[in-house]
Design goal:
Two copies of one chain form a homodimer. By secondary structure, chain A is α/β, with parallel strands linked by helices. In chain A, helix 4 links the parallel strand 5 and strand 6.
């Protein structure tokens, strides 16, 4: 299945095919210097398979986890490219999950003010969501994605076979982002989750999620309006993620929790049931106050009000600007 | 005088008026949080004058010189914005020369993936050239501008009165970049330099240089073709600048030297005379071998050839791809 993100001169193809990692050499232009960025949690064989298709590959393996989305790793990647004499016509390939994609994409955006970037996501979260759309970033002072660039990849290659090495918890974690798209944009996709068919219909979920996201990004690349809807669940989710540091919740798990306070009365129990079917948590390990405190740097706050995405029914959404007190009450009620 | 850089949705105005620093509050939108970035070499009063027009100003003064174009200063500026609760609707203003503009512009490009950026250049070099066009960057491992972004300012405010505090050597240094535009694009402007009228006609030179650059950037924002002509003198110039570290030559002085080997036989003595009229150096303090060695990371090299901008007559240019041996010979002949 091929999907295209239509962005004029920055349009690019997404290929979703089992076994396609082996096609990297034909689908991508790797006959040059290639910085392959992966992390210690990704099976080594994926990056090696890609490296075999490159004229001059250099693999950099960063530590697993959010701490790799840092200024120091960004500088490290740029230094490696400099030392290896990369020019503007060379490229960067991310092989891994969202952390690797965000970091490698930002390095590609900055090095020589932009070299080609390819994304080969190998986790459910990155395959259904983060690998397309061009959001790249690092974290700073504990605040996620606060420094980055909108920088579109030249192509995205998705091989669902790579998901077979993922622990089940990571699969569920990624599906939370697909559930987010179902709740806000696609009632039929939501039914797949409600019926508990998500694991069995993974490839279909990947494709439908990417189609939704590609369509949103086409309409609003820089998140001036519609694209903000993709933050459904993320405002509260980021708050939980920051505050829950020691509780070790994954990003998608936090987003799943974050959706609940932002659902209408009749929708909330349905989303809760869908989360349960995915074995995702439905109770926040942190209190509403801690969530709110962690949100003070959130990009969506302005003064004593907050703008959030709200859904009353599957496939529907609206933007709501709430006083922080109301927002707090909704969190307390739902979590 | 108002000039407009036409770039569709990213178009912006440039205002060149003596005394206009006092108009900052009306020409720019400063009714918000404003990070003002300046350096220790810029008279404090300029940043303070701008700060008086802002709702919530924060002045950050970095050390003078290229060493401030670093990852660590970039991170510092982002941290300050984070600590001061900057949101996507706040902005960054550069008050100073090219170093401050490049650094502050890159910070604005990255913070929250882009906040508004205004440039208020206070040196000849930044007023005639670097403040417009959207090239922002930091240096890494001694290589200039190797990490950065194309990020256009929202407006550029130029007050030639600020030049009165500059030492004469800095004025000449900046005029080298205007001479570069004259040689490649504007025979009439070149005559002003030949007649030794540059100092007396500074405002006119600023406006004409900006008009040339605005026109080039409009046609080729990302330096895919025509914009490369603005690198006239810069290939050899960067080499001298890197190699001459201890000799303390300024950027424009190196660019001036760098033009000589890239001029045709009849043009070279005329450019040499123009450099002398500006009290700019005409002999390189470093040998051709050292210049070539320093060029190995230059963005214009590819294999054993190099692509350079060449001029046979004022107002004319061509791109030439030379074997490195020929390139070396031209440097040895001219410098």
């Amino acid at each position: 299945m091929n999907i295209r993100v239509e962005l004029g001169g920055r349009s690019y193809p997404i290929r979703v095919v089992r076994g396609s990692l082996q096609e990297a050499g034909t689908f991508l232009s790797l006959n040059r210097r290639v910085l392959i960025v992966t992390d210690e949690g990704v099976p080594e064989k994926y990056a090696k398979t890609v490296a075999e298709k490159c004229l001059r590959p250099i693999i950099v393996t960063v530590p697993e986890g959010e701490q790799s989305k840092s200024f120091s790793q960004l500088e490290h990647l740029c230094r490696v490219m400099l030392e290896k004499d990369f020019t503007r016509t060379d490229c960067v390939v991310a092989v891994g999950g969202g952390v690797v994609g965000d970091l490698a994409g930002f390095a590609a955006a900055c090095f020589m003010r932009g070299v080609d970037f390819y994304n080969i996501p190998t986790t459910v979260l990155s395959q259904v969501d983060s690998s397309i759309g061009g959001k790249t970033a690092v974290n700073l002072a504990g605040v996620k994605n606060i420094v980055g660039a909108f920088y579109q990849p030249k192509a995205v290659l998705i091989d669902p076979d790579t998901l077979s090495t993922l622990p089940p918890r990571q699969v569920s974690n990624g599906l939370a982002e697909a559930l987010k798209m179902a709740v806000t944009f696609d009632a039929d996709l939501f039914e797949i989750f409600e019926r508990g068919e998500a694991m069995a219909r993974l490839d279909e979920i990947i494709v439908r999620s990417l189609q939704i996201k590609a369509d949103v990004v086409r309409q609003d690349e820089k998140e001036a309006g519609l694209r903000k809807v993709l933050n459904f669940g993320h405002t509260v989710g980021h708050g939980i993620e920051s505050a829950a540091g020691l509780h070790g919740l994954y990003h998608g798990e936090c987003v799943g929790l974050g959706m609940l306070p932002m659902c209408g009365e009749t929708l909330r129990p349905r989303v809760l049931a869908a989360l349960q079917k995915l074995n995702l948590p439905t109770k926040s390990p942190v209190a509403p106050e801690a969530i709110l405190a962690a949100l003070s740097h959130d990009k969506k706050t302005a003064g004593d009000k907050i703008t959030v995405v709200y859904s009353a029914a599957p496939g529907a959404f609206e933007m709501r600007t709430l006083p922080l007190a109301d927002f707090r009450r909704q969190i307390a009620d739902a979590l």
